[in-house]
Amino acid sequence: MMTLKNVLICCALVLVWPQLGFAQNSDEDIWSECRETNSCKIDYDRLANQKTDPFMFLGKAVHAKHPKWKNFRRSLRRYPDVRDCLIKDERTAETPNLLHFDWQRVGTGNNAAVCVFRIAASLGSVERTQAWLSYQGFRFGKFGRMVSESDQPAYRRFPIYNLTASWSAEQYREVTSSWFAALTGYDLIASYTLVLSFDQFKRIAEISVSTRSKLN
Fold first, then answer.
1. Is residue 126 a contact partner of residue 159, using CB atoms and an 8 Å limit?
2. CA 20 centroid distance within chain
3. Which of 57, 76, 208, 214 has the fewest CB atoms lying closer than 10 Å?
4. Series of mean pLDDT values for 10-residue runs along the chain (216 residues)
5. CA geometry: angle at 18 spanning 16 and 21, to 5°?
6. Distance of CA 128 to the CA centre of its chain
7. Is 128 helix (H, G, I), strand (E, B) or coil?
8. How many Å is the Cα radius of gyration of the chain?
9. Residue 159 has what DSSP assignment?
10. Model pTM?
11. Integer angstrom CA distances of residue 109 from 75, 82, 154, 159, 210
């Protein structure tokens, strides 16, 4: 028989479990029901762009005089607004659905770093960002500090927390094809990873992307 105490415990787990970073590692797709009806939604604070929420590297805005400008300038010019990162139908929607990310167009390199940053800035919280990653099929661990709690941030937006999210090689190949894998049946890619870093206010402060090779 379900007691009031058990009900309260179950409710608490529903609220806390996703924040601890476990729900996304389940084999069960928590979005499966709404996927069937194409009705999955996620709340967001605003629609971020380069003016309101500039793309950052190590918590500092990337601009023409930034040392990383050459690495990201094309991506920043192509994706200045979070709407630019979405599928065609969502780009002009009055209230676009940020879950409908255009991976085929954006790809998995620097464009993805810029666009996922725009998504996280728009969502406005770690929990919503975790939910977004879960919908995209990423597996990730706990959200945690990179530095000791006694260490003070070097500057206001200095990244002190991070969250690592990964796709398998099979998931990665759904977005990025390989002629070598197609010809040989052997894929050199082992996994694809996003590392999301957050500042002391738990706002997105940096995103990096990487692919792990089986040859490493």
1. no
2. 16
3. 214
4. 35 37 55 93 97 96 95 97 97 97 96 98 97 96 86 91 94 78 66 95 96 75
5. 110
6. 10
7. helix
8. 18
9. -
10. 0.83
11. 9, 16, 28, 21, 8
